[in-house]
Amino acid sequence: MYNNTMESMEWIGIAAGVLTAVSMLPQLVKVIREKHVEDLSIAMLLVLIAGLALWVVYGFVRKDPPLIYTNIFSVAVNLALVFFRVKYSRKKVLG
């Protein structure tokens, strides 16, 4: 019984990680399509990336691949948002 409960909890954790990891994809797609970034807070993204990076470190310490992979993916998506935030903000300033 204990192993089944642990397996169920493992799947809940994986599902939570995957949903969290893909949560910013709609925002990334919208930014790429519309090139509108003025309402995107770079400070929020940087704080989020720092927190996600700590989750990656924690995943390595715990030797937990789902925790590692989902948070690495999240870091990448949010770094892409920072990249486009800077890129599209400069275009507007430069004319």
Automatic annotation (TrEMBL):
The way this protein sits in the membrane is described as: Multi-pass membrane protein
Q: What cellular component GO annotations does this protein have?
A: membrane
From the Swiss-Prot or TrEMBL record, state where the protein is found: Membrane
One Pfam family of this protein, by short name?
PQ-loop
Q: Does the keyword Transmembrane apply?
A: yes
Q: Which residues cross the membrane?
A: 12-29, 41-61, 67-86
Q: Which UniProt keywords apply?
A: Membrane, Transmembrane, Transmembrane helix
Under the heading Gene3D superfamilies, the entry gives: 1.20.1280.290
UniProt superkingdom: Bacteria
Broad class of the protein's primary localization: membrane
A molecular function (GO) held by this record is: sugar transmembrane transporter activity
* Secretion signal span: none
**Matching NCBIfam families, A to Z?**
SemiSWEET_2
- Indicate what this protein is called per its UniProt record: MtN3 and saliva related transmembrane protein
